[in-house]
Amino acid sequence: MPRKRPTDYAALDRPEVLTFLFHPRQTTGPASSGGKFQEILIPVEGDVHVGARFHMAHAKGPTLLFFHGNGEIVSDYDDIGPLFNRLGINFMAVDYRGYGCSGGSPTVSAMMADCHRILDFAEKWKMDNRFAGPLIVMGRSLGSASALELADASGDRIDGLIIESGFAWAGPLLRLLGVDPERIGFDEASGFANVDKIKTFTKPTVIIHAEFDHIIPFSDGQALFEASGAADKMLIKVPGANHNDIFMRGLDRYLEAITGLAEKLSSV
After folding, report:
1. Which of 86, 90, 79 is nearest to 31 (CA)?
2. Which domains are delineated in the chain?
3. What confidence tens digit (pLDDT) does each residue in 193-228 have?
């Protein structure tokens, strides 16, 4: 059963933390060509919606629900979505509040609550549109918090998990960003608890991390891999890469790992 955890992220919702943690920007210009996608607005609270783009391959294929990094928006993945589609994977990238065409303002509390509403929406969208393949949740960098929250709380509804450039502990990351965790009253046990959350997810899991990640060290990826409760798990180190060029430097291995997981789940 999913474990109940503290949900008070007040220490991380302070303005001085949010300034460093989130870097929202709006969608500008027309969408890139190269594939078909559906622009979606997902209701999360009241009249607030978050934007998503669903790059569709085929209804029987696996669907990858993707939470991106803190300085990205879904339109940054307009060229990557068709790449996944050519591999037979449906790709749904979602924004945070204040990002892209989303409403509201980003906070940690909102991000962690919204991911549950996004999962509900994704499941209903799949059902309504008769997309029957397995559901894989993936989080990159900051998005690893959303992915691991879902893996822990709703693991029975997810078929596979991918964490790319994910953080094991928030304290060191906050310090790197210029925030003193002790000064703001932050405690790992009542924060993201990513290492604890990944222990509860027992389905196939892939961890991808850059060898020379200058923001979230490779040791964090290794810690998540070691803590993972999955019997079927894989750790991919991308040689020579850092946080921001991991996809470019490790493209073949990156796609091979994701495709392998997708094919494995589709054959079950």
Report:
1. 79
2. 10-22+36-266 (3.40.50.1820)
3. 999 999 999 999 999 999 999 999 999 999 999 999
